[in-house]
């Protein structure tokens, strides 16, 4: 049984799913050192935002196949290291959308009506109504930074509260914003016009300290800010200063530059107009069930050899799409392996052409499969679907993609062309029925060969006697031929022969074959 480590509190439903296929250890109080010490034992790890999977931790996880993040943000995972090590990283992109949006709205209302402070005051024995006169959100401007899943839900609720919604999101189309009934504006306009500003974007090098002293200075006096996205998008020192000066009327933070927030953080000292929650955006029963199921199912599937539906470092495939593409992925991998062996030396460019019924399919997984096949003779089990693209890039292999739906020889086929330091080679493959793989051309010579473990390929002149001579040579060396195919474009022109052989070719025999008169080249292929 594979072993899965659950290192943050996860809903029991997730543990039950994992237990169907693995031994599950739940250890939620590990120090970073303890984590590094035990990670080599595990095939998978499931985390929330508490566990930090640093480069060092991931490198210690020598047997890890998958990292499951029960939530959206993967900023606590060193994804490039995982990718380099061929570890799939999956998340739950939608499981906690509503929870985070509702927490944001609750923060906005709490800021407007001083609910936490009024509650504290009343429980402290007072009946103070004067200190807690709030403001209405009705007819106010809400500025949303990042109009993705959470931002969009906040926008639609805010509109129904009678707010005017402005959004800044450089990656969003004007059509999408219009459909949401939101005014898409420049950052500066949003900062100048908003009465409330809420953040819903990822933390990247471009968004770090996006809200800083300079940008606070151009905001309306009395603005209220909410951050339920990620700590560090706001400069905490700058907002604390702006609260103290009265420039900002209120701020509600669910996320912090350092989590857990330091016990002596200055933010804890600020007044009633500052509301702090300990990263609770995703903490609803419903969201925790959603993310646990979503991620546990993906870990279970990957441990069973199935694809993940929302991997962040490989193309995620829906099960129905995967069922359809699976035989083509196997075909692409075999063809990549074949064309790489024919190319012999270094490959600089690989063209992947999707033909017939798959011409309009998602190409990325097929390209990745072809690259995995291409690199597998050199990298063996070190290359997989996760790191094939990176490994190819690091080796300077440039990938191009083309599509031709008009090719109708087979229902769907894949054509690969590899250019390298030893020239150009091309292969085509198709499926017979639903899943039987056939090689249907080599260097544009039509053939129809079922690939086998050992194959001998020759390029030769189509003339009497050549095939017999090659056959006798193999017989002399006790190599058994299982089947044979010849492809040619014209009688007595150039031809290709593919022999499926039962045994590996003894050393020196290939050289003898190449020296037969009329043979221009010969290759031994091991698939
Ligand atoms: N507090 C919590 O517990 C909690 C829960 C869930 C999600 N989150 C966080 O909330 C954030 C949003 O999550 P989501 O699911 O809506 O993500 P999403 O990917 O659906 O949306 C993010 C949006 O940000 C936009 N964006 C990216 N860079 C930007 C930039 N420089 N300026 C403006 N917009 C930019 C993107 O175009 C996208 O539309 C993430 O940081 C996520 O980690 C927090
Ligand atoms: O794990 C959590 O509770 C927080 C999750 C949240 O930050 C996310 O990005 O999905």
TrEMBL record:
<dbReference type="Pfam" id="PF01842">
    <property type="entry name" value="ACT"/>
</dbReference>
<dbReference type="InterPro" id="IPR029009">
    <property type="entry name" value="ASB_dom_sf"/>
</dbReference>
<dbReference type="InterPro" id="IPR006139">
    <property type="entry name" value="D-isomer_2_OHA_DH_cat_dom"/>
</dbReference>
<dbReference type="InterPro" id="IPR029752">
    <property type="entry name" value="D-isomer_DH_CS1"/>
</dbReference>
<dbReference type="Pfam" id="PF19304">
    <property type="entry name" value="PGDH_inter"/>
</dbReference>
<dbReference type="InterPro" id="IPR045865">
    <property type="entry name" value="ACT-like_dom_sf"/>
</dbReference>
<dbReference type="GO" id="GO:0004617">
    <property type="term" value="F:phosphoglycerate dehydrogenase activity"/>
</dbReference>
<dbReference type="InterPro" id="IPR029753">
    <property type="entry name" value="D-isomer_DH_CS"/>
</dbReference>
<dbReference type="Pfam" id="PF02826">
    <property type="entry name" value="2-Hacid_dh_C"/>
</dbReference>
<dbReference type="Pfam" id="PF00389">
    <property type="entry name" value="2-Hacid_dh"/>
</dbReference>
<dbReference type="InterPro" id="IPR050857">
    <property type="entry name" value="D-2-hydroxyacid_DH"/>
</dbReference>
<dbReference type="InterPro" id="IPR002912">
    <property type="entry name" value="ACT_dom"/>
</dbReference>
<dbReference type="InterPro" id="IPR006140">
    <property type="entry name" value="D-isomer_DH_NAD-bd"/>
</dbReference>
<feature type="domain" description="ACT">
    <location>
        <begin position="455"/>
        <end position="527"/>
    </location>
</feature>
<dbReference type="InterPro" id="IPR036291">
    <property type="entry name" value="NAD(P)-bd_dom_sf"/>
</dbReference>
<comment type="pathway">
    <text>Amino-acid biosynthesis; L-serine biosynthesis; L-serine from 3-phospho-D-glycerate: step 1/3.</text>
</comment>
<keyword id="KW-0520">NAD</keyword>
<keyword id="KW-0028">Amino-acid biosynthesis</keyword>
<dbReference type="InterPro" id="IPR006236">
    <property type="entry name" value="PGDH"/>
</dbReference>
<dbReference type="InterPro" id="IPR045626">
    <property type="entry name" value="PGDH_ASB_dom"/>
</dbReference>
<protein>
    <recommendedName>
        <fullName>D-3-phosphoglycerate dehydrogenase</fullName>
        <ecNumber>1.1.1.95</ecNumber>
    </recommendedName>
</protein>
<comment type="similarity">
    <text>Belongs to the D-isomer specific 2-hydroxyacid dehydrogenase family.</text>
</comment>
<keyword id="KW-0560">Oxidoreductase</keyword>
<comment type="function">
    <text>Catalyzes the reversible oxidation of 3-phospho-D-glycerate to 3-phosphonooxypyruvate, the first step of the phosphorylated L-serine biosynthesis pathway. Also catalyzes the reversible oxidation of 2-hydroxyglutarate to 2-oxoglutarate.</text>
</comment>
<keyword id="KW-0718">Serine biosynthesis</keyword>
């Amino acid at each position: 049984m594979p072993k899965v480590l659950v290192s943050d509190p996860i809903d029991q439903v997730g543990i039950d799913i994992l237990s169907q296929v693995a031994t599950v250890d739940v250890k939620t109080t590990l120090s970073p050192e303890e984590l590094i010490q035990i990670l080599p034992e595990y095939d998978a790890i499931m985390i929330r935002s508490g566990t930090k999977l640093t480069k060092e931790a991931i490198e210690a996880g020598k047997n890890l196949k998958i990292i499951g993040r029960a939530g959206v943000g993967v900023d606590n995972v060193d994804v490039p290291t995982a990718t380099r090590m061929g570890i799939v990283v999956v998340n739950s992109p939608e499981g906690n959308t509503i929870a985070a949006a509702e927490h944001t709205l609750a923060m906005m209302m709490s800021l407007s009506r001083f609910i936490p402070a009024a509650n504290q005051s009343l429980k402290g024995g007072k009946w103070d109504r004067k200190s807690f006169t709030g403001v209405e959100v009705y007819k106010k401007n809400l500025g949303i930074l990042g109009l993705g899943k959470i931002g969009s839900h906040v926008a639609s609720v805010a509109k129904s509260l009678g707010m005017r919604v402005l959004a800044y999101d450089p990656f969003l189309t004007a059509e999408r914003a219009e459909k949401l009934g939101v005014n898409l504006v420049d950052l500066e306009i949003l900062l100048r016009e908003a009465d409330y500003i809420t953040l819903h974007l990822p933390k990247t090098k471009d968004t770090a300290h996006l809200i800083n002293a300079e940008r606070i200075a151009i905001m309306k006096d009395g603005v209220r800010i909410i951050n339920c996205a990620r700590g560090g998008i706001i400069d905490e020192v700058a907002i604390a200063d702006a609260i103290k000066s009265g420039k900002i009327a209120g701020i509600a933070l669910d996320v912090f530059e350092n989590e857990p927030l330091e016990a002596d953080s200055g933010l804890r000292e600020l007044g009633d107009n500052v509301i702090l929650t300990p990263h609770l955006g995703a903490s609803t029963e419903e969201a925790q069930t959603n993310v646990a199921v979503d991620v546990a199912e993906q870990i279970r599937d990957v441990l069973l050899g199935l694809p993940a539906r929302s991997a962040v470092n490989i193309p995620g495939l829906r099960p129905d799409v995967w069922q359809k593409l699976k035989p083509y992925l196997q075909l692409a991998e075999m063809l990549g392996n074949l064309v790489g062996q024919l190319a012999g030396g270094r490959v600089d460019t690989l063209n992947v052409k999707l033909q017939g019924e798959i011409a309009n399919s998602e190409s990325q997984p097929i390209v990745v499969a072809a690259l995995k096949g291409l690199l597998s003779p050199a990298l063996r089990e070190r290359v997989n679907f996760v790191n094939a693209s990176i490994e190819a890039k690091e080796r300077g292999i440039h990938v191009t993609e083309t599509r031709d739906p008009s090719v109708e020889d087979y229902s769907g086929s894949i054509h690969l062309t590899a250019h390298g330091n030893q020239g150009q080679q091309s292969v085509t493959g198709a499926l017979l029925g639903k899943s039987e793989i056939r090689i249907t051309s080599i260097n544009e010579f039509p053939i129809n060969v079922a690939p086998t473990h050992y194959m001998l390929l020759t390029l030769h002149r189509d003339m009497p006697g050549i095939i017999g001579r090659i056959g006798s040579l193999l017989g002399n060396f006790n190599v058994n031929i299982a089947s044979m195919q010849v492809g040619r474009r014209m009688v007595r022109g150039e031809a290709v022969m593919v022999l499926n052989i039962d045994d590996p070719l003894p050393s020196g025999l290939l050289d003898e074959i190449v020296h037969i008169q009329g043979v221009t080249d010969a290759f031994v292929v091991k698939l």
